[in-house]
Write a structure and sequence with these properties.
The chain has 242 residues and is mostly helical. It has one domain: MetI-like (MetI-like fold, Orthogonal Bundle). 84% of the residues lie in helices and 0% in strands. It is built from 10 helices and no strands. The radius of gyration is 22 Å and the shape is globular. It starts with a helix and ends with a helix.
Length: 242
Amino acid sequence: MKTPRKCLIWLFWLLVWQAVSLAVSNPVILVGPAEMMQSLLSLAGQTDFRLTVLHSFGRISLGFAAAFAVGIGAGGLAYIIPLVREFLEPLLLAVKSVPVASFVILALIWIGSENLSVFIAFLVVVPMIYSSTLAGLKSTDPRLLEMAQVFSIPLFKRLRFIYIPAMLPYLISGCRTALGMSWKSGIAAEVIGIPDASIGEQLYYAKLYLDTGGLFAWTFVIIVVSSLFESLFLWLLGRIRH
C-alpha cells in the first residue's frame, strides 16, 4: 500500500509544481516538470553529458571515501587515546564552524579548481564520520568488553563481534547525512571554482545564460546520482552486519 500512496504524493507535488509554473508563466523564473524533462532529454543527447556526470561523481565520491576512511581512523584513535581526542576537538570544531565558502576560496588558492570538490567534500564529511565513529565506540557494552578481556578474545574478534556491531548504527546514521552533504558542498565548490567538465560548471553557465530549464535538469541529475550513490553505499555498509 505504501508504494501507490507514495506515487500519489509525488504526483500531487508534480501537479502543484506544474500549476505554479503555469501561474508564473515565465520560463526564466520557473519552469514546470515537462519543460525540465525536455531540457534533461536534450542534455542527455549531448556527447559530453556522461563525461560531465562521471567527472563530478568521481571527484565527490573520492572526497567522501577519503573522509570516510580518515574519519573512522581518527575516531578509533581518539577512542583509544583520549589525548588525541582533546587535540582533535579544536580542529574539528573549526572545520564545522567555518563557512564552506571560506574554505572554497582558500582551497582555490592552495590547490586550484581541478580537485576543489574532492577537498571540500572531504572537509565537510570528516567531522561527521569522526563523531559517529567515536559515539558508536563509546556505546560499546562494557560487560562485553569485560567478558572479552576475561576470556582473552583476540583483537580481531573483538572488532568483528563487539566494536563493529556497536559502531555500525551510529555510522549508518552519520553517513545518511554525510552523503548528502558531500554532494551539496562538492557541487557548490564546483559552481564557485568552475572546473572543466563538471556539473558545477554546467550550473554556472545555466545561471549565466538564464537557462532555467537546464538549471532544473542538472539539479535533477544531481538528486538522482547522489541518491543512487547513497543507496549503494548504505547497502554495502549494511552488508557488514551479515
